[in-house]
Design a protein that fits this description.
Methyltransferase, Cobalt-precorrin-4 Transmethylase, Domain 2; 179 residues; 26% helix; alpha+beta; 2 domains
Length: 179
């Protein structure tokens, strides 16, 4: 829902290098610009790069937080990710893909903590993730598989590790020792 005189530019298939000049041009023309991200912009949203480029162009900006997919998924599925005497740590991570994960943050070493673990952008690597996680979590560990959580076409469900590899349409996965 935007005003009828607002210019809407779809950016899903654009790179930051394509988007930023448009934003800078509009601001310098005296227009207000809103770059709307889904979820919380501080997670996997290229916000650091965007803020750096806006700063270099001397364009003032404000970042307004949102709700992350792991929070929306937990609410949708009515689960708590921290349970006294069971788990008090939540790890947010992803599998290396187009963006590499530092070797010190490799999934196997993070899984060794046996914390509630939320995987983003990892559906294409589900077999690899499952193998690494099963080294540390039991096969009957509950796994939430979520696709476009918070959108009209969202899908989500709870599975056990031994069955979740069939869920390829997931944007976010999280494992919890006890759901």
């Amino acid at each position: 829902m935007v005003r009828s005189d607002a210019e809407v530019i779809r950016t899903a298939n654009k790179t930051l290098e394509e988007i930023l000049p448009i934003m800078v041009d509009r601001v310098r023309a005296g227009k207000s610009v809103i770059r709307l991200h889904s979820g919380d912009p501080c997670l996997y949203g290229a916000v650091h790069e965007q803020m750096t480029m806006l700063g270099e162009a001397e364009i003032p900006f404000e970042v307004i937080p949102g709700i992350s997919a792991f929070q929306a998924a937990a609410a949708k599925l009515k689960v708590e990710l921290t349970v006294p005497e069971l788990v008090q740590t939540i790890i947010l991570t992803r599998i290396s893909g187009r963006t590499q994960v530092p070797s010190s943050e490799e999934l196997g070493s993070l899984a060794a903590h046996r914390a509630s673990l939320c995987l983003y952008l990892s559906a294409r690597h589900i077999e690899d993730a499952q193998a690494k996680l099963l080294e540390h979590y039991a096969a009957d560990t509950s796994v939430a598989v979520c696709f476009r959580i918070g959108w009209p076409d969202e899908k989500s469900g709870l599975y056990r590790f031994r069955k979740w590899q069939n869920c390829r349409a997931a944007n976010s996965l999280f494992a919890r020792r006890c759901i």
